[in-house]
Amino acid sequence: MSMFSTGILVLTSPLHTLPLRIAPVLSSAAQVVERTLYVHLHPGLNLGTGGGQPRPVFIPPVVDLSSLITGLYSNAANVCGHLDVRVLLTNVRAQPNNASSPETGGTGVACNPFPSPQPLSHSPEVVLTDFALQDPGQSPLVAQCLQRYTGRCYVCTPGLASVLLHPQLQKLEEEVEKEGQKDDWDSSSERMETYSEVVVGGTFDRLHGAHKTLLNISCLLANKRFLIGVCDQELLKKKVLKELIEPYALRVQRLQEFLQDVKPSLQYEIVPLSDPFGPSVIDAQLQCIVVSEETRRGGEAVNKKRLENGLPGLVLHEIQLLKDAHHTEMEEEKISSSSLRSRLLGTLLTDPKQDKSHLPLVPYVIGLTGGSGSGKSSIARQLEALGAVRINSDQLGHETYRPGEVAYNRVLEEFGSDLINEDKTINRRALGRKVFGNKERLKALTDIVWPEIALLVKERIQQAREEGKQVCVVDAAVLLEAGWTDIVHEVWVTVIPEEEAVSRIMARDGVSQEDAVRRLQSQWPNTQQVEQANVVLCTLWEPEITQKQVRKAWDLLQKRIQQSREGAKPPS
C-alpha cells in the first residue's frame, strides 16, 4: 500500500461505538499516513445510501465527545506516536435543539459548517474512513462519495486518494452489533457547558497528545475567544532539561498552526507568561479556565487573585491526565514534555551545520564539551571503554607550556619571565592571577595557547588514523570558545543544572560557592553550548542512567558512521 505524508480520517461510527474502534482505526491509518493525520468527526454519516451526496453538518459539543477526544489522543500516543494527530472541530458548535430533519442530520442545525472548503496547514493527500460496508461491491461508490464529502469540507491535494479501513476493522463488527445501533447523537447525551472566553496556560514544548487534548477541549468550550499563556523566561528556570526546550517563537508558531487547523472560527490570543498568573487574573472577560488534576491548585490560585482584584472567579473545567504507556523508570507516568526531552538525550538533534567534506571519514571525530562539573570527562572515559580514542585537550594544554615549546616562549615574552619556576616550567597559578578578570589579557593568552593545542589534537587524530582507529573523542572544555568545530565531525555537549554544577565543583575542588559560581560564569552557558550541539547528554541522574545514554549515543553514532561511509562509496 502507498504511503502518504498527510491524511484525513473521517470517523462515521456512532459515538458510543467509537471508543472500541479508536485504537485499531489509528493503527490501520498509521500504515497509510506517515506524518500528519487529521481527524474529522461525523458520527452517523452514511456514505453508502446512494440517495444523494451526504453533506457536512454541525454536531453539538457533548460530554461524550470530550471523552472521545481524550481517548483518541491517548490511543494515538500508544499506537502511532510518530504521527501528528489533530482532531478538527470546525463542524462542532453548540446550538439549541430544533426539529430534526434529514437536512440537518438530526442536529437541528440547517446551515453548512463549511461555506467553502477549509484550508489546512498540510493539504491531505489521502482520505480514510471507518465506514463499515454492508456489501464489498459498494467500495467504488463509497470511495467516490467519501472523496466528494471531504472535498466539500477541506482543501485537499488534487487527485485525493481514498482508503476504506473496514477490512481491518471487521473483528469489531460483532462487538458493535452486540452494543446495538443508536442514533449518531443520542438524545440522552449530556451537552457540554460552553463559554464565550476561555483561558489556559502551559509551556507547550514539543506539542504532544496531552497538550492537544487540553487545546482541543478548550476549543470545544470556547465560543468566541481562546487565550493561551505560554511560559517563558523565569518560568522555565526550574524545568527539567530546560536547555532543550524549544524557543518561545517556535512554540507559539506550532500552537498557532495547530489551533488554526482545529477551529479557525475562534479568536486566538497567545501571550508570554513570566509569572504563574499572566492576564488570567486581570481579564474581566474570561469565564473559564481549563486545568488538569495536577494544575487544579493553580486554577484555584488564579480565582483567589481574581477575587482580590474584584473580578468574578472562573469556572474550573478539569480534564484528565494522559498516561504514557512508554515511560521509563526515570520518567513521569503521564505524557509530558520533560519525558520527551529526556528521550532526546544521546540522539542526533541536528545535523552538523558546517561542511565536513574536508575531514576524512576515518577516524570519525567527536568533539565532547560541557561546563565545569558537567560530567564531561566521565562520559569521555565511557566512550573510551566502548572503543573510542580519547584525546584529552587539557593534558595537551599542559604540554604546550613545557620548556622549548612554541607557546612556552611566547607566553614568557607576553607575560614576563617572572613566571618561571626553578625547574624552568611556567608557574601557571601566577599566570592565572595575571589574566584573571582581565578579558584582554586572557584573550592574549588563549590566542597563544589554543592554536598550539589544536595542532596537538590534529597530531593525535592523525596518529589514530595511522593505527586504524575508527572513532576519536576530543575531550575539550573550550571546544566551542576556541573554534575547534572545524576539526570534528560532530559536537556533543554535556549539561547539568547550574546549582548541581556548583555543588560538584565545591565538593571536587574544595572551593567556596562564590568561586564555583564565578568559574561557571566565566564559561559559555549551557543554552549557548546546546545551540551548537549535535548531541546532548546529561549526568544529573544515577550513573546507570548516564551509561544508558552513552550506550544509546554510541550505538546511534555507529549507524551514522556506517551510513556516511556507504554514501561515500563510488557506485559499483
From TrEMBL:
It comes from the Eukaryota. One of its GO terms (biological process) is coenzyme A biosynthetic process. Residues 1-17 form the signal peptide. Its EC number is 2.7.1.24, 2.7.7.3. Residues 199-342 form the Cytidyltransferase-like domain. Pathway: Cofactor biosynthesis; coenzyme A biosynthesis; CoA from (R)-pantothenate: step 4/5; Cofactor biosynthesis; coenzyme A biosynthesis; CoA from (R)-pantothenate: step 5/5. The keyword DNA-binding does not apply. It is an enzyme of class 2 (transferase). Monomer. Bifunctional enzyme that catalyzes the fourth and fifth sequential steps of CoA biosynthetic pathway. The fourth reaction is catalyzed by the phosphopantetheine adenylyltransferase, coded by the coaD domain; the fifth reaction is catalyzed by the dephospho-CoA kinase, coded by the coaE domain. May act as a point of CoA biosynthesis regulation. In the central section; belongs to the eukaryotic CoaD family. This is Bifunctional coenzyme A synthase. It comes from Salmo salar. The gene is coasy.
